[in-house]
User: Fold this.
Amino acid sequence: MDKVLSNKKMIALYVLPALLLILAIVYIPIVLTAFYGLHEWNGIGAMTFIGLGHYKTLMQDKAFWSSAGHSCLLAIFSVLSLILYLIVAMVLAARIKGANLFRKIYLIPMLLSSVAIAQLWLRVYHPTNGILNSLLVSIGIDNPPAWLAEPSIVLYALFIPILWQYAGFYILIYYAALKNIPSSLEEAAKIDGANALQIAWKIKLPLVMEVVKVTIVLAAVGSLKYFDLIFVMTDGGPNGASEVMASYMYHEAFRAYDFGYGSAISFFLLVICLLVTWVIRKLTAAKDTIQYS
Amino acid sequence: MALTLTLGLVLAGCGKNDAGQNAAEPSGSKDAGGDKVTIQFMHLWPEGVSAGQNKIVNQIIEAYQNEHPNVTIKQEVLDNEQYKNKLKVLGSSNNLPDVGVTWAAGFLQPYVDGKLFTPLDDLLTGELNGKFVAGTTEAYAINGKTYALPLEFNIAPVYYNKTIFEQNGLQVPQTYEQFKQIVKTLSDKGIAPIALGNKDRWTGSLWYMYLADRIAGQKVLADAISGSGSFEDEGLVKAAKEVQALVDSNAFVKGFNGLSNEEAKSEFLNGKAAMYLMGTWELPNFTTNEEIPKSFRDSVGFFKFPTVEGGKGDINSWVGGPGVGLFVSENSKVKEEAKKFVEYFVTKWGEQSVTGAGVIPATKVDTSTMDLPQLYIDLFNEMNKASSITLFADVQMKPNAAETHLNMIQALFGKAVTPEKFAQEHTAAISKGN
Assistant:
C-alpha cells in the first residue's frame, strides 16, 4: 500500500478522474460565467464586450438589492434556526424512547424532491381550500390572509417550508457529532453533580462547536443561493416580494433574454458567498482548540 | 423527462443533440427517388398532456413518410415550459432542430436577430397562398420577411357558468356597467365572480388589455405595445385604474395574485367561480374532454368583453392572435426538404386540428363540412366578424419589456403600484428597446 501511495504517478492517476469532472462541471463554467458577465449577450446572437458595465448596472439595480435583502433575511433565519435543531438533536441524543423513530421522521423532508415539497405546501397555503386556512376558519378566524399573495407576508410564509426542508439534515449532523462525544465525559460530569442543562451548555456544546461552525457556513451560504421553493411556489412574486438573488438571476437570464447580465449576477452571487464564508470563518475562529482524547 | 432535460442541457453545450421520445419510424427507408434525408422535428405536444395534438402530429408524419419514402422524421417531444428552455439552450449553442415550434413577435425577435430562422416567404406564395387568417402570418414577420408559419389561432372570450347565472337571475352583460353589477351581485352572495390566477401574470394582462381596448381604443393600445404610442395615454391609465377598481370590488377569487392559472381554472371547473377570461385553447375542456363532468361542460357559455360607456373600443374587438408556429432552422442541412415538410404539415394540420384536437388552426377553416360542438361554431362566427385582433402584449413586446409588463401587471393587481407608475414603468422599459 505504501508503495502505491508514495508513487506520485499513482496518486495523480487516482485523483485525475474526479479532478477532471470537477474542472469540467464546476470550475470551467465558473470561468465562463465570469467571461459572459463581461459581455452584452441575449443568449442567441453575438456577444459584445462591455467590461464591467453589467456590474455598474447591478450596483444601482433596486430589484437586485431588494432580492439580496430577502436572501440575507433567509440566511439570518436559517442560522438562527440552527439553535433549535441543536436542541432537538441534544434531546434525541440523550437516548430517549423513540429517538430512532424521530430521527427518521425528521429526515423525511430531505428525501422529498423540492418540487414535491413545493406542491405540498402550495396545498397547505391555498387561500380557500388550503389546510392552513381551512383550519383557521374552523376555529373562528374569519378572513385568513392569502399567504402567498400578500407581499408583506409571502416571504415569511415561504421561510417555513424552506427551513422545514433542511431541518432533518442539520439535526442529523448534530446528532452524529453529539454521538461522538465519549459517554465517559458525561458520566463524570453527572457524578460531579451537573444537571442536564449544565452538561449540555458546558460540555456538549463546546465539543460539537467545530461542527456547529461548519453548519453555520452551510446554512448561511445555502440560504444565499437558495432557489427551489421560491421558484416553484411563487416564482419571486407577487412582483418581486419573494424574489431572492438566484431567482432574480434566473428571470434576468432566461425570461428577459439577458444572459450577460444574468451571468454577472451569478458571478456576483459567487463572490458574495465566498465573502460570507470567509467572514464567518474569521468570526468563529477558535482561539484554542479543545482536545478530549 | 427531467433526466432528458438535464442531459440535454449539459450535452447541448457540448454540441450534441439528445433525442427524447422517438415516434415509430418506418421499418425500412427505401431509396426511391432522392437521397435519404432525416429531418429533426422538435415540438411541444407530449402524449400525456396534449393527446389530441400528439396524435395528429404522428398521423401527419406517418403520411408524409409514406409519400416520401426517402425521408425520415425524428421527433423530439417536450412539454411547454421545458420546450421553451431547451429551445433557448439550443439557440445559444447554434444547434436548433431542422423544424421546430416558436411563438410570434417578441419571442421570435432574438432568434431572427441571431439569423437562426430561415425566411419562409416562398411557402406563402405557393400552395398556402391566401389560406391563412388575416393577421396571423404578419405576427411572424420581421422586417418584411416571414420567419415561421402559424399553426394556431386563438381569441379570448369570457367563459361563464350558465347555471350560476340562472340561479342568480343574471343576464349576459352588454355593457361594463352591467358587468360590474353582476360582479356585485355575485360577491354579495359569497360566490367568486371571476376565476383569475395571476401568479403567471399573463392572465391578468388579458383583463388589462380588454379594459384598455374598450376604454382607449384598439389603435391606442396597439401603438403603446409596439412602442409608437405610449402607455401614459389617458385612456390606458384609466384602464389601469379600472383594474384596481375591480380588485377593490372583490371581483376575483381570494388570493388570486398568488394562484397559478391551473388553480384558478379548477375554481371555475368546480363551479366555485362564475366567469373565466381565457383563450379558445381551453375549448376542449368545455366541450370534448371526457375527464370533465358533462353537466359542467354543458353549462359553459361565453360572452364578448362588454363595452365601456364613453370608451372607444367596440364589442367585436378581440385580444388574441396566432399561437405557435413552425420554423425552419437557417443552419439546417436539409432546408429544402424541411420547408416542404412544413408546407405539408401546415396544410394537413389545418384540416385535422379542429376535429382531432379541438385546436383552431391559423389557416381558414370551412366549418360547414364539420360536425363541431356549438361553442366552436359560435366562436368561429365571432372570429369571422371580428373588427380587430390585438396580439397578447407579453408576446408582442420584446423580452425585457414583456417581463416588465408582466411584473407591472402583478403589481397593479396587487395594488403595489399606482396606475400612473404602471404607465411610467412601461414607457421606461419600452424605450430601452430590448
The first strand of chain B starts at residue 37 and ends at 43. Residues 155-320+379-432 of chain B form a domain with the D-Maltodextrin-Binding Protein; domain 2 fold (CATH 3.40.190.10). DSSP finds 18 helices and 14 strands in chain B. The CA atoms of residues 411 and 417 of chain B lie 6 Å apart.
